[in-house]
Amino acid sequence: MITGSLVALVTPMHPDGSIHWEHLDRLVDFHLDNGTHGIVAVGTTGESATLDPDEHCRVIGHIIKRVSGRIAVIAGTGANSTREAIELTTEAHKLGADACLLVVPYYNKPTQEGLYRHFRAIAEAVPVDQILYNVPGRTACDMLNETVERLADIPNIVGIKDATGNIPRGAELIEAVKGRLAVYSGDDATAADLMLAGANGNISVTANVAPKAMSQLCEAAMAGDREETERLNELLMPLNRKLFLEANPIPVKWALQRMGLIGEGIRLPLTPLSDKFHGEVEEALRAAGIL
Length: 291
Known about the structure:
The chain is of the alpha/beta class.
């Protein structure tokens, strides 16, 4: 089972929007050096919505090659087309991904039965470990716990990223799928509480800029060390909040640029962080001891 701090890695770009491969290597090395337990390649934080299929697969393959088996690589291969998701998942499996992360289909609002059949079809088509991803705030579609319980019986569906931020609901899910699925938080602000309730890790935006502290928080929370978890959570909470002042990954890309790790590239329709928020994000970085 993949556990711990799993960074939802950004995709660094040149000012013209092309992928910056050297900076991507720098980010991967940054996480290898600072205790991150796994990398999510080309998830939504990695701007999967604006990478074409060839770029999408090239970035996944590049990260797998750079990591070289030292930590887990989870490929973001979700889509709102079942056929497209199968194609991306097939390619990620060929490239050697340890698992694939599949977001609930966005925009087209399938029924719960449609969600079940979508994820079952992908699992049956590609023999790779698969992690579901429920983020209703961005997909406009909420996969209910009952649907997740049905999917938990499919052997290569091994986990779910729960980004609802609803701790009672998450705790119920953990209990319902215990022994069948790993549950990961997908919401930095509530991740500590969900891990203390039994979740297996955090797929994190904040880990992009604070990998060591986030990996330590995950380890403490999964070990049941409430005091250390609360100390680290308090340290990171300003970042957890300020990195969402505008749509993710706008603030976290600006933060990484401010840290000197990447350049200013981001793809339309996303734009660079508004000037009025620079001070708030920088203040959060300083409060966490990053700057």
